[in-house]
Amino acid sequence: MNITFGDHVRVLSAPETDERGLAGKCGQVYGETTPSVTGVEVIGEAREDYALNVFMEDLDADFWFAPDLLELIDHAAGTEIIIGNRKAVRRADGSWEESDSLPTKKWWQFWQ
Q: Does the model's pTM come out above 0.90?
């Protein structure tokens, strides 16, 4: 199963994760990138020139990982994303339920 944005993941044990003390740690996927373009430091070998950014709340830090060093825990059902007046809520199956039902405010109601 592919790991994607928003998923909860666990870092697998491997020499590169063990030496950093990250093996077994859990976090949430906050992004993805093409390391050859962005130049991020990736833990593991990004064989397909693809890496995932995982934020670990207990460390208050994020790291870029090769996907084969991560294990899916769940799709973080209930995660909400709001961009402008669009809202998306993550379902248990990994899909997103989108809506534009957020109330819009008049420019002069900025304090509400």
A: no
